[in-house]
TrEMBL record:
Coiled coil: 91-118
One Pfam family it belongs to: Beta-prop_BBS7
Domain BBS7 beta-propeller: 1-75
InterPro entries xref list: BBS7_GAE_dom, Beta-prop_BBS7
Domain of life per record: Eukaryota
A GO CC term attached to the entry: neuron projection
Keyword Coiled coil carried by entry: yes
Protein name: BBS7 protein
Record's keyword terms, sorted: Coiled coil
GO biological process: cilium assembly; intracellular protein localization
BBS7 GAE domain ranges (all copies): 133-190
């Protein structure tokens, strides 16, 4: 998307990447765009948009991720500094917002407890049926021309415990910065 998030009268380029990186580029001169800000999310970004969403007068960037989470970055100041010995007083609007969020959190906690209890009762009944849930998998296998390697990217809406890669030909695995996996090699019986 393009949006004037910096408020300088020139639209910035907002980019959401497959690796979860949000970037804001500024066009300060006629040359190449300059990276002004970046922010890392834990999953790929499906869409990104700039606008005024939460509070009038403060622009925001909203990003939707692969699993459907919405993440927002705002220009509204979130910290307020007070002088020495000065108490920080919250405005009535902020107090009502905090109260509303606390009520919503309590409601959600009660709902989670009810659903857990319902699930436990149904799983202990004699008519309970066990089934494996289906997951949508976002996978990409792309060639990196610079170093003649392939990147395998797997995303699922739950945590990934193991990935098994089996090949008929020798494979060299390269480590990347974002990788937190522990690699284990084992030979395979050819028959």
């Amino acid at each position: 998307d393009s949006f004037d998030i910096l408020g300088d009268g020139v639209k910035e380029l907002l980019i959401g990447r497959d690796d979860g990186i949000m970037e804001i580029y500024n066009f300060e001169s006629a040359d190449d765009p300059v990276l002004r800000y970046d922010y890392a999310l834990s999953e790929s970004i499906a869409s990104i948009q700039g606008g005024c969403v939460g509070k009038d007068g403060y622009d925001e960037i909203l990003a939707s991720t692969y699993s459907g989470w919405l993440t927002g970055l705002t220009t509204e100041p979130v910290h307020r500094e007070g002088g020495s010995g000065e108490e920080l007083k919250l405005s009535q609007e902020m107090q009502s917002k905090i109260s509303s969020l606390r009520n919503e959190l309590e409601h959600l906690q009660i709902k989670v407890l009810q659903e857990r209890e319902k699930h436990q009762q149904s799983s202990q009944s004699s008519t309970a049926v066990s089934s494996v849930p289906t997951f949508s998998v976002n996978d990409k296998f792309t060639l990196n021309k610079d170093d003649a390697s392939y990147s395998l990217i797997l995303e699922v809406q739950t945590s990934i415990d193991n990935v098994l890669l089996q090949s008929d030909v020798p494979v060299d695995l390269l480590d990347v910065d974002k990788n937190s996996a522990v690699v284990s090699f084992s030979s395979c019986d050819s028959e």
